Amino acid sequence: MTYTTREEEIARYAKALSHPVRIRILSFLEKQSCCFTGKLTEEIPMAQSTISQHLKELKDAGLIQGDVLPPRIKYCINQKAWEEAKKIFSAFFEQEPIVTK
Amino acid sequence: MTYTTREEEIARYAKALSHPVRIRILSFLEKQSCCFTGKLTEEIPMAQSTISQHLKELKDAGLIQGDVLPPRIKYCINQKAWEEAKKIFSAFFEQEPIVTK
DNA sequence: AAAATCAATCGTTCATTTGCGATATACAAT
DNA sequence: ATTGTATATCGCAAATGAACGATTGATTTT
After folding, report:
1. Quick check: B62 and B55 in contact, CB under 8 A?
2. Average pLDDT in the A45-72 region?
3. Phi-psi region of B86 (alpha: psi -120 to 50; beta: other; left: phi over 0)
């Protein structure tokens, strides 16, 4: 069993978000709800293998999921993880520091 | 002048948050408001040089600032950047995907 | 069965990140 | 002036990440 501290959990999500191409993919999925890999390779000027690799990282982080609809794969945001990440980040930023002089 | 897209901006903040030690430092600063490097090196079991390096990255990202109070340095969260990061992440997560069947 | 399509994976190269000990810097105390 | 203290910076080694072309695998179409 993989024990993960809160720090590690935030860091792991942050890492998934730490590349412009991955942000772009996620933004696209947010707007479109779902889309095929092909659409992304049109949209983003990078090699197909590179985009596929970024998709893998987002999938490994749990933020997206892929439905195999042969011969294509439809990617969507993973609602559950998305909500969790949202909650975690907002909790992290929420607690305002106590201002002392 | 450094042109930065929205994707790059999010990714840059996310990168700063993508390491457990940096999350830990920020959490600590959030609670304590401010503290000296020494306090952090007590708190976190890593070499002093390593922590100093993580502090530098957080500083470069703009998330913290250091006041030189010889012979020590007092680090605080940079309120302005903190609020900005908070806003950027929440906007990013906010827009719910349209669920289609 | 052969060809075509879509996307993942492999293998490689190059760049960046991480962690550390050693050293340097800046200032205070003696 | 010397010593001590707190912290940054340097230089290195190891690990990880990014990008790409080529290949493979799965499925449809012909």
Report:
1. no
2. 93
3. alpha
Residue A27 has a CB neighbour count (10 Å cut-off) of: 15
pLDDT in tens, B27-64: 999 988 799 899 999 999 999 999 999 999 999 999 99
User: Are A8 and A15 in contact, with CB atoms under 8 Å apart?
Assistant: no
End-to-end CA distance of chain B: 45
Q: What is the mean pLDDT of residues A63-82?
A: 91
- The number of C-beta contacts closer than 8 angstroms across A and B is 104
A75 DSSP β-pair partners: A35, A66
Q: What is the pTM of this model?
A: 0.89
User: Which among A11, A30, A31 has the least Cβ separation from residue B19?
Assistant: A11
Q: If we measure between CA atoms, which residue out of B75, B31, B28 comes closest to residue A96?
A: B31
Written in H, E and C, the secondary structure of A13-57 is: HHHHCCCHHHHHHHHHHHHHCEEEHHHHHHHCCCCHHHHHHHHHH
